[in-house]
Amino acid sequence: MSPTQWDLPVELCCRPMAFVTLTGLDVVYNAVHRAVWDAFCANRRADRVPISFKVLPGDHEYPKCRPKRTSYEWYIPKGILKTGWMNKHLNLVPALVVVFYELDWDEPQWKEKQSECATRVEIVRQSLQGRNTKVAVVLIQKKTPLPPGEDVIASERAAALCNACELSGKSLFVLPHTDHLVGYIIRLENAFYEHAQTYYYTEIRRVKSHKEFLNKTTHQLLFVRHQFKIAFFSELKQDTQNALKNYRTAYNLVHELRAHETNILEIKTMAGFINYKICRLCFQHNTPLDAIAQFRKHIDLCKKKIGSAELSFEHAAWMSKQFQAFGDLFDEAIKLGLTAIQTQNPGFYYQQAAYYAQERKQLAKSLCNHEASIMYPNPDPLETQTGVLDFYGQRSWRQGILSFDLSDPEKEKVGVLAIQLKERNVAHSEIIITLLSNAVAQFKKYKCPRMKSHLMVQMGEEYYYAKDYTKALKLLDYVMCDYRSEGWWTLLTSILTTALKCSYLMAQLKDYITYSLELLGRASTLKDDQKSRIEKNLINVLMNESPDPEPDCDIFAVKTAQKLWADRISLAGSNIFTIGVQDFVPFVQCKAKFHAPSFHVDVPVEFDIYLKADCPHPIRFSKLCVSFNNQEYNQFCVIEEASKANEVLENPTQGKMCLVPGKTRKLLFKFVAKTEDVGKKIEITSVDLALGNETGRCVVLNWQGGGGDAASSQEALQAARSFKRRPKLPDNEVHWDSIIIQASTMIISRVPNISVHLRHEPPALTNEMYCLVVTVQSHEKTQIRDVKLTAGLKPGQDANLTQKTHVTLHGTELCDESYPALLTDIPVGDLHPGEQLEKMLYVRCGTVGSRMFLVYVSYLINITAEEKEIVCKCHKDETVTIETVFPFDVAVKFVSTKFEHLERVYADIPFLLMTDLLSASPWALTVVSSELQLAPSMTTVDQLESQVDNVVLQTGESASECFCLRCPSLGNVEGGVATGHYIISWKRTSAMENIPVIRTVITLPHVIVENIPLHVNADLPSFGRVRESLPVKYHLQNKTDFVQDVEISVEPSDAFMFSGLKQIRLRILPGTEQEMLYNFYPLMAGYQQLPSLNINLLRFPNFTNQLLRRFIPTSIFVKPQGRLMDDTSIAAA
Amino acid sequence: MAVCIAVIAKENYPLYIRSTPTENELKFHYMVHTSLDVVDEKISAMGKALVDQRELYLGLLYPTEDYKVYGYVTNSKVKFVMVVDSSNTALRDNEIRSMFRKLHNSYTDVMCNPFYNPGDRIQSRWALLPVSASSPGGPYFLCPYPVQVGPTSCVRSSPGGPYSCVRSSPGEPYSLCPIQSRAFDNMVTSMMIQVC
């Protein structure tokens, strides 16, 4: 009995192939024969026929064939299947024996050679006596044969040779030893294959023929045996369909056998074999579901067939093997292209195999716990004469006995004992671990991470049982975090308990401490008594003593461990262990909380560290230190209590270093921030809590950031969701869940104690030097130094504003583009307490709109905080939004000399330009002067003197000017003619003397100039008097280059009599002027219509009287006649 | 009937897990935990289907030699897992489905309980909180749900009115047991007992 007793035999697991032996080949010394043999056996690819070849000497003795039984009447079979049978037909009894012989058709000594060949055939036949094995002859020839039928000698001699050897023509082959050896060989082996198939066919027939002799009572075993043989021969024949059919029948027959404790193993063994064959063939036929169904049926049928209770571990071993073998078949099929799924993959079978292997171990443990004094029986009952069993699945001490009664109970007892003692030596854990790791590999492939973790836990536990604690710990540690992150505390606790045992047994200090910390924590589901035990052990370890052994550990292992722990104590070395808690759930929780999200630099920064222990007993820690991103603060945040090692548990509830379970401990820390850190964030990077001290052992729990471990984020989430009412606690206590970690704070500058006032008169007017008076008053208790002012446009506004805003301190000169939009850090000296200073700023805004202005005052002051003198930089800023508006609106219009609105002006004819300046400023404006700058195309008719000098305009008031201009003829100009600029110099009336005057330049609109053919203007007095002569002179100017025919008529008016030409037709030469003189004599007083002058130009029909009316007056005021004759007026008339 | 019933939170930690006390509890914990592999896979495959057409019952998750594990997932991704003995042939798919539905209803009742904070492990007991310290012995709270308090139980002053809990003897420690999660407990117990 080998340890691999349960392994399936090789001959069962291989693919059966037709067995053909080759004789007469000398593969050692004959190169030709060697080449032939190589061609047969080298490079056998899948497309070659499935034959297994073997070279044997011609006189090889084949297994003897037992004489044929003529009757089965008295035959009682001793078992189901002989152990040698499969091997015999795979490797010993050939389907075909081939005799190789070197013989050419033109052999001179033909006769001799022929008889030698016949002898060889005869010898082979002799050793195969009684078997149906075929014999074939292959002639190795040097010459290439002629096509069949052409070589007369060849066919003659072939027939003769067949006769001599008693061979059919089909069994004689010729192998020319030429270039195409492989081709010939392939043809040869195809022929061999046909012969082999015929052989197996006849074998199947032969086995079938036995059937009719069998009866159901005594030959039950033979039914199974024959059915198995038929199926096996079918497989050899490569008829897998029939093989499967016959195996299925055989399988059913096996279960029909009468089972008893004595033969149950044999039945199970055979059932297992046949099941294996069926599953294998099903996978081969690509019907995996059939294979699975068969396997399920097989397991269901055999699960309960335990057999002898004393050897029940054998059943478990067998079951395990069944699952493993199926898993292997499944896996092999997948490698050949089958697809498996998450819920149906080989992993499940390996897992189940492992489960049965574990059961086997359990059973073996309870059944094989014989005392050491019991010796292995001698003679060995498991030993047989041949060294192997005759039949599969039988007991070596009662082979071939079919009776269900135990003939020799004593012998049976010894045999069982022997098996049990052997089982004790089996490395069960190794088997289990192998199976589990097979399963792990599968589940990894089929996306089952949790299943994988579970199996790894089992592997770890198995390593623990196998006392390989290093590997156990490695595996357990690896999977722990999966359970932790998913919050399966029961499972985590169970894993941790095993891990703690491993670390105890190996005296791994750091691991031991880590696992203890977590088992004491809130994630552990251990009972309080267990927790207290662990806590006690942990304290022992910290005091540099050995812990008590963990319960349920192997006694011998504990002894070794105790020695290891003792060594650890004497061993000097690093006794400080730093353990990062972010990856697990320790029994101390920590939360850091700054009192505020920001602190002023002159106020001490305060924060609390909250600690809570979940262990059953109070625990004292030795040191707490907090680290910051700026390490200079670390020194201020350390609590250390020099306590002796043995004081860890003394005075447990006293002192702030002692944590009482369930109670939240608050520790307040204070420090003064550095002035360099103003505007920066202070962050707690870690909190270190030390348990134990350097003289013993010391554990430093390290929290990253402001506390929190692997479980706390989920807890915080739950607490935030909860609307549970928390019970009231005494004043100084807080609920753990209500504490929210605040691990960082901002340091902000000290609150300034100065006032900044701005005085100004909004809105600002475009381009003016707007005055902003800044008043800074110190309210500080001490002198402030280095006061600096930054003022101007607040950064971050529209970029265009920066271009169009300029700030200066000097209001006496206009600032231009070169001035900045923001004046920075203007030093204004020191200020004593209560002192006040004033600064004037001038802002020039080039565009309208609103702007934000910033006034920022910074200063230094010496402050004492927490008995430390620090220099604080304070600053205060004020912003103000100032609207900029136009100071005035300027309206410009063109009118004729008659003050009539003009759409366009006429070349060379005077017109009026009227400007209207309407003040829009809420403050009074002084127009210092105005100026009209004419474009070259314009000429003035009279002086261009400003008419609005030093006019003060209140809001809504306006100042108008009027200029008489003339535009010489320029021909037709597109878009009109430029008029020029109107420049207004102004300032606020309220502005100081030295404030410069602002010149606002207004571009006057373009005007369209039109030429007219004839210009008429009239010379007439400003008024007339009744019955006094009124001389009127019309000037007609020809503005064209042509001679003009002009028809003139004067229509009479009721109010006037007149003398002069009433109707005339005349010609005016180009550029010349014609005067027409009339004497009007007014008859009525009042505003009277003059006799109208009608002019008709024959060349210009468009020249109408309406146009004419624009130039000449149509009415005149006539004064009534005076009472006294005024001589002078008469004289003037 | 069922040998183990578990409720798993959206984040895959157990909210409630009960198994037959006769057997190794840990084994079932592992079994439920490993079944989440299949649940996850099924949910991710289901993700594409429309919400209203979604079948909550996930069917058989995976068979082991001795047990069958069934799954069910609510719309809020809370999972129910039920482990049934393989030998129990009386339970067909339809029965399992209706058991899950009952369980879901019971769970919904738990969620409706104002004392239950979603995401907390479902358990029957927690401390009684007085409404005001100024009224010792007075009514503790008024709530629309029936609750049990230590030795006394809640009284309804008028039909359909709120329940009020009165402390009978001052100074005694009380525990509060909202009926809803006890009802859930009872429902699970009934499912586990029935056929066994």
Automatic annotation (TrEMBL), chain A:
It is found in: Golgi apparatus, cis-Golgi network. The keyword Transport applies. Its main location: Golgi. Pfam families: Foie-gras_1, Gryzun-like. GO terms for biological process: vesicle-mediated transport. Residues 1037-1095 form the Trafficking protein particle complex subunit 11 C-terminal domain. Keywords: ER-Golgi transport, Golgi apparatus, Transport. Residues 263-521 form the Trafficking protein particle complex subunit domain. The keyword Secreted does not apply. PANTHER family: FOIE GRAS (PTHR14374), TRAFFICKING PROTEIN PARTICLE COMPLEX SUBUNIT 11 (PTHR14374:SF0). Belongs to the TRAPPC11 family. Involved in endoplasmic reticulum to Golgi apparatus trafficking at a very early stage. This is Trafficking protein particle complex subunit 11. It comes from Macaca mulatta (Rhesus macaque). The gene is TRAPPC11.
